[in-house]
Amino acid sequence: MALIPNRAKYVLAKPCALPWKSIIMKQINISASGDTGAVLSPDSLDNISDGVKQAERMKQTDFVGAINRLENLLERINKLDCDKHDEEYKLNYVTIVTHLSNIHYFSSKYEKSLYYTKLLDAASEFYNDKRLKGNTLLQFGNLHGDMGEFGQAMRYSTDALEIFKEINNIEGMGSTHNNIGNIFLFQEKFDEAFPYYEKALHYFNQVEQKMNKSNVLQNMASIYIHKKEYPEALKRLAEAETLKQEINDSFGVAVCKFLMGDIHLDALEFDKALKCYTEALEIQERLDDNNGIFYSNMHLGKAYLDKFLTEGKKDKSLLAKAEKHFLESLFVAQRTNSKFTQSLIYKNFSSFYEVSGDIDKAYEFHKKLYDVEKEMYNEKVSEEVQKLEKELQVKEAKHSSEINQLRNVELADTVAKLEDIVKQKNEFFGVVVHDLKNPIGNIKLLAEFLIDEGNYSKDEITEFKRYIIESADTSLELVTQLLDYAAIEQGKITLNINDFDIAAETERIMRLYKMKTMQKGIEVRFENRLIQNIVQTDRNAIVQIIDNLFSNAIKFSPEDKSITIKLLSTDDNLKIEVKDEGPGFTEEDRKKLFKQFSKLSARPTAGEHSSGLGLSIVKKLTDSLKGSIECDSEKGKGANMIVKIPM
User: Which of 62, 86, 142, 602 qualifies as a FRET site for 440, CA 20 to 30 Å off?
Assistant: First the structure.
């Protein structure tokens, strides 16, 4: 069964990136208001001040109503015939625009938030207000961090820090350290993020700032969750939730409950998880927080489905509840027209209907997943092509200049090298086209059969759909491996050395492939001989190495055999072994085992697709970690892949 991708996307994309908002937002008690924001006549700054207070009372319980009122107030204050340097005018104008920037940010409407943040930036210049300038730079950093533009986010944040140091603003320095911690947190650089959060807490304790302090605690909890240190995470979340309730931060309370739900779900405490997610969802619906509504519903569906599977598939009502919440997530994803959230819910729906036995709907959502991932991939490819075309133009211009200067043997050598590069490129694309041709052709042919489904039995039609799913999986696997390989070849892999639990990651990978091993009757044995499970190396590289070796072992294992994964420590090395009982490799196979697109004598035992890239990717990742890989195998006696990584 497919798992939901990294659930931290919701956690990091919203609340954990908003610790500093109260610096330029007033924090007041919340009470519901049905005021429509009618314009008082004649208009004045006093009337607008009253309207701002009413909007502040609405903003945490009714985003839409607050936006309407604030936009009305902004239009009115711009029309006032008064001195723009008046302190009351400045206070009201900045407060209105700040609220609009923040609320749109909370609602994931980044373009609108950027628009209002630019108005704040202009106001900081007009009033020559350094504190406002620092806060505005922090908001820019916030937005660019959410959009994944970490370089710009860091530049804005460090510029803000310089301003706050200059004016000795303790609260601003605390907020900036928290923001920089968030930038590292987005990139899962947890060890680099934590010291910034500790400094932020130090500053906020000096000024007793509950909003910012609660958000820092929430961010620290996110790190503990990633490290699976759940008691520490729950402790920080409980502190954060108490503070947020004291200041009526409904949005923050919802996020704390959502995170607690994740912890309980990981611990298989389903009733506690369902309670937390439900309480979070109730708040998010009041706030019209589409991002939160999507993720809470999706995690509720996942919790009900996991409970159904864990408790022996007895209570069918759990399936109905899971389907209801998955549908709610689907409606939000379609309404916001987000391809990424659509891909998440399609994947969950495909797994859901597979579990419930509805192969037609499982196929329907798998096809939707394939289509939306293809759109996302095409968009990414289009961007890469444009980038490559520009790079090629620069290289061609540079190359032409160099060619004009070459009048000796170097010219011939250069041309020969270029011809070799072109040859390799043509061979590369030839293999890609060949490997994609068959599964795509199968999908087309089977789809044509289904058009005339009246000529086939129900069992035949079901079989056609299974073949289409298998062919789509083959294409997606090849495309994923090609992207991984291309990233490594282009040097886009950046190592992040940090501590993590390798045993827990190995067990997670085993769970991901559980359905495939069950289908082939393969017994998976895990032998952890490490004295200490926490290792210090690049987590993503190690996970990819184990994933590729394990998936290869499954492909080449006959039915009713076993696969053994071992973790050992020898001298100063981490040793990973993945042993199967497949056909093994010949001496000739071992010579080309780690070359790209190698075709070996051994073939997958159940007709699975093999791109010839998996072991090549493992080799390059191992090399990047200054490690080694070898294969202990004889024809007919299985294979044992051994990776050694220096610690």
Answer: 602
Report helix, strand or coil for 529.
coil
The HSE-up count of residue 613 (CA atoms within 13 Å, CB side) is 20
Task: Please say if the pLDDT value at position 482 is more than 90.
Answer: no
Query: What is 126-186 written as a DSSP string?
Result: HTT-HHHHHHHHHHHHHHHHHTT-HHHHHHHHHHHHHHHHHTT-HHHHHHHHHHHHHHHHH
Task: Characterise 188 by phi-psi region: left (phi > 0), alpha (psi -120 to 50), beta (else).
Answer: left
Tokens at 88, concatenated: 């009351």
**Confidence band (pLDDT; 50, 70, 90) for 24?**
very low
**What pTM does this model have?**
0.45
Contact by Cβ (8 Å): 582, 605? yes
φ/ψ bin of 140: left (φ > 0), alpha (ψ from -120 to 50), beta (otherwise)? alpha
Element (H, E) at 501: strand 497-501
User: How many Cβ atoms sit within 10 Å of the Cβ of residue 434?
Assistant: 10
Distance (Å, rounded) from C-alpha 87 to C-alpha 94? 11
User: pLDDT exceeding 70 applies to what percent of the chain?
Assistant: 75
Nearest CA among 407, 405, 574 for reference residue 502? 574
Residue 318 to residues 41, 113, 297, 326, Cα–Cα distance (Å): 57, 40, 14, 12
